[in-house]
Amino acid sequence: MHIHKPTSLQAKFLSGLAVACLTLGVLFAGGFYIHMRNVLEEEVRDKARLIFTHVDSIQNYVRQVLRPTMYEQLPDTFVIQAMSSSFVSRSVMSRLNNGPDGTIYRRVAIDARNPEYEANERELELIDYFRGHPESGIWRGYKNINGDRYYVMARPVRFVESCMYCHGEPADAPADLVRMYGNRGFGKEQDSIAGVDFVGLSVDGSVGRLQRTILTYFVFFTVGAVIFFSTTNLLFKVLVVNNLKRLTNVFRRNVADAEGSALLRKLEQGDEIEELVEGMEQMGEHLYEARSQLQLYAENLRGMVDQRTQALSREVEARRADVALFVSLLSDMRSSTSRADLWQLALPQICRRFRARRIAYVCTMASQNYFSWPENMGRPELPDDLVGVLTSGACVVLGNKAYIPVESSVGNAEGILCLFWDTDAEANTHDRAVLQALGRQLGTVAENMTAIDSLMRQMNVLQTIVEGITDPLALMDSNCAVLTVNEAARKLTAELTGGRRSDGNLLPLFFGAELDHCPMVDAIKRGTPDLREETLPCGRSFSLSMYPVRAKDGTTGRVVVYVRETTMEKRMMVQVRQSEKMATVGKLTAGLAHEINNPLGVILCYAELLRQNISDPQQGADLDVIVRHTRQAQRVLRDLLNFARPKAAGSGLADACAVAGSVTEVFSVQAMKKGVTLSLQCPSDLPRVRIGLNELEQVLGNLVINALDACPDADGEVLVRISPRSGGMIAIEVADNGPGILPDDMSHVFDPFFSTKETNAGTGLGLTVVYGMITDVGGTVEAGASAELGGALFTVLLPAEDGPETDGAA
């Protein structure tokens, strides 16, 4: 007999789900309602603020623009439509009162000038509130107006000083205003509160829309809940209830006796879960009984399992020992330097692993060497069929001996490994496959030892050759990665990068880090060498050669980079060319000066004689022109002779700071007239320089004159700086802020007769004479650009008194 269940699991689940959904629906509806009311209140509050903002804009415009303009146009007339801020703001904002959204705007007062804007009872309450709370600037709240609920925002209207003209005494007010309204609206006191700005926004319509929205939401929620309940009921029945019934039916089918039927009737009093729990308990009792029966069988199996476990443990230990042996052999290969070292390390380990009495290795190659352990044992006995054992590649056990071929990775026989035990049984207990793998492993290790030894010898030879080259040399791949580099390249990289890098990769210093702009990549693509000259920003120049290296398959993926510094060579060539040029021009100018100087002396002598015998002023003036130009020609010839036969410039010592101070003082007047700032920077306690005093004055004078000529008028600047340099040298720098030296003119500034000045402004021999004097004492002079002032920079390096002796020094 089937007993009806009072409450099923499905009914309980759906009842709880319904209560949860109803509770969530009410909470969501209440929260949504509160949120929407807050949004509605914020909206009407912002709208009220906007209305007040519009009113303030209108009133400010009337007070600040319309009223002053009207007074300018009509001084004695008061036009209320344009000059009263209250009238204009009421006229504009009153249009809101007729809108469909129920907005009310009123600007009212006590004793209002227009009776329509007299404060009513509700507005009088607000005026009294602001009078009682003068610090309050605005009032917000809800009020019932004509049966509707309004959100109200009000603010007080204070009579400030500008309002008293129209609301003070009638005698002081505009006549048009008194004529229009009589005595209404006058008699107000300054800073008093006599009115309010009132804005009311109807909220009944919005609340109704909110209620309808909540109701619509609740209807949709109800429909969704019904659909959700139906779907959940179907899924719960299919996925849970039906599966639970299938489980309980299993118990019914397996319990057929009277005791089982009574149990089933008891189970049917609860729901499906209770029925399933009771069934699991009954199954547990059945399993307990089955366990008791299986325990007896397990005790019989334990002995067999222990035996098998011991056998597996021995096998695992053997495999672990094999792995440890192979790992040790690999470690011995890394630490060995020759095959003899390898066999001396490996044989004892192999012998102990397989518990052999003796072990030996015989090389079957041309050397026929053998190694044994213990070492006092002689050469081992080899099998009669040695060739067959070696060619078969398999481990052979003969009695108490095992012979294992040692083969390379390609199958070539390197030798044979011999193991000896005390009995034949001990020899047959070991796995032959493991012994055969051991022979192959030893053959591979020996082969690798030979290859590594050959490779190391080749690498040593190559490294010796590369390091023997004194110039920087590097082997690089197509990604600008350094493969091999010598010490010279490392030193140059560290020198050019200030110690930041020492990897020997010089290409980024010449061409940047972008591979697309690296000529090495182009050389690889072309497959032809790339030879070029490169100059770094620091002024050092290098000869750069890139030679692509072809592989066996014809591809080019590597480049040999060879670098040679040519800075000193270029400087020496420039000095040689300059010296040759100076010598040639000197000989030419000496001859020309000697040949021309004599006729000029005769011309000057006869001109002076003629001056003594003439009385005509015009003829005297003509003679003055002849004498002046003759003396000018003699000065040019004197400069030529000074250049062609310079004096011994190194015939003394001079204080560079004192000479520079004297020269700057002499030319300070000329600099002041031109508006040029002439300054000197010189440290104290500098040693004297190896050059004559007069010669140093002439050098500094020429350089300062050129700098003053190059400076612009009124804002020019010339800087003379003296500082010590390394190598026992003293540097004299003369810089200006003029236009500088053009790059094309840089190599000609010391040439004779070369000048960038205007015609008849210079002979072009000043810098030439300076160059000759400085080089005679073993110094140098260079022209460049001044990074500090932006113009030209001339740097003179002279040997110091306590510096190294030079050929030109006295």
Automatic annotation (TrEMBL):
Protein keywords: Kinase, Membrane, Phosphoprotein, Transferase, Transmembrane, Transmembrane helix
Enzyme class label: transferase
Reactions the enzyme catalyzes: ATP + protein L-histidine = ADP + protein N-phospho-L-histidine
Transmembrane domains' residue ranges: 13-35, 214-236
Keyword Membrane among UniProt keywords: yes
EC number(s) stated in the UniProt entry for this protein: 2.7.13.3
Entry-linked InterPro entries: HATPase_C_sf, HATPase_dom, His_kinase_dom, HisK_dim/P_dom, HisK_dim/P_sf, PAS-like_dom_sf, Sig_transdc_His_kin-like_C, Tll0287-like_dom
Keyword Zinc: no
Matching Pfam families: HATPase_c, HisKA, Tll0287-like
Molecular function terms from GO: phosphorelay sensor kinase activity
Domain Histidine kinase: 591-802
Protein's name according to its UniProt entry: histidine kinase
Organism: Oleidesulfovibrio alaskensis (strain ATCC BAA-1058 / DSM 17464 / G20)
